[in-house]
Design goal:
By secondary structure, the protein is an all-alpha fold. The protein has two domains: about 35-85, Orthogonal Bundle (Arc Repressor Mutant, subunit A), CATH 1.10.10; about 105-220, Tetracycline Repressor, domain 2. About 75% of the residues lie in helices and about 0% in strands. It has eleven helices and no strands. The protein has helices at about 1-15, 25-30, 35-50, 60-65, 70-75, 80-105, 110-120, 125-140, 145-170, 180-200, 205-220. α7 (about 110-120) runs antiparallel to α9, α9 crosses α10 (about 180-200) and α10 (about 180-200) packs antiparallel against α11 (about 205-220). It is elongated. The N and C termini lie far apart (about 110 Å). This is TetR family transcriptional regulator. InterPro entries: BetI_C, Homeodomain-like_sf, HTH-type_TetR-like_transc_reg, HTH_TetR, Tet_transcr_reg_TetR-rel_C_sf. GO terms for molecular function: DNA-binding transcription factor activity; transcription cis-regulatory region binding. Keywords: DNA-binding, Repressor, Transcription, Transcription regulation.
């Protein structure tokens, strides 16, 4: 019996020296695809930028908002700037897609332009404009952003021009150069938005809308 007892002791000793087996977390057993995890992180960054601006958002804030570790963020992205860049693009595309859909469903060109004016300035759009100007500033440092911004303006001007041309065909507008109107309309909207964010001097949502409506009336109905 002694040899058998010795063997039992020896085996027990080996097991005590062996490192304990760690439980495998559920997230490790069922990993999400890289593109899904990246999208979740970018989605979480959007409201952070809208509230604080890109300069006030770091990798820790993004990780906390996404419910992941800092290491997960740095694994999927080369830098926090890459996360913020993708978040800005995602927001801008969504915002203008929603505007386009609303204008496209209007019963007339005049109604479509009115809907655009109202949608550009609401109590919630300060968040968008903060993101837009961060996106704008990024174009000064990044050529890809500059190209993207130029494409966004071209598309935006095209949609405004189409509404004016439609309104002119329907007899509601008088305009010799819809493209020129679109350029000046968007420039005025940008300027009013910047004034709205800075509040120097103060500018309310109704006042911003009123300025745009007066411009539309003077240019297209005057």
């Amino acid at each position: 019996m002694a040899p058998h007892h010795t063997e039992d002791v020896r085996v027990t000793s080996r097991s005590e020296r062996r490192p304990p087996r760690r439980a495998v977390a559920a997230s490790a057993r069922t990993r999400q695809p890289t593109e899904v995890r990246r999208r979740l992180i970018v989605e979480a960054a959007v409201p952070l930028i809208a509230e604080r601006g890109t300069k006030a958002v770091g990798v820790r804030e993004v990780a906390a908002a996404a419910g992941v570790s800092v290491g997960t963020v740095t694994y999927h992205f080369e830098s926090v700037q890459e996360v913020l860049s993708e978040a800005m693009v995602l927001h801008i595309e969504r915002y203008y897609a929603a505007l386009s859909d609303a204008a496209g469903q209007a019963t007339s060109g005049a109604e479509g332009l009115r809907l655009l004016v109202d949608a550009l300035f609401t109590e919630d759009t300060d968040r968008h404009w903060r993101m837009w100007f961060d996106y704008w500033n990024a174009g000064e440092r990044d050529e890809a952003f500059a190209r993207g911004q130029a494409e966004r303006y071209e598309s935006w001007h095209g949609e405004i021009r189409a509404l004016v041309e439609r309104g002119r065909a329907e007899g509601d507008f008088r305009c010799d150069d819809p493209a020129d109107f679109a350029l000046r309309f968007s420039a005025l909207a940008d300027g009013l938005a910047l004034r709205r964010l800075r509040q120097v001097p103060a500018l309310s949502v109704p006042a911003a809308r009123r300025h745009l409506r007066r411009f539309v009336d003077a240019e297209l109905r005057g």
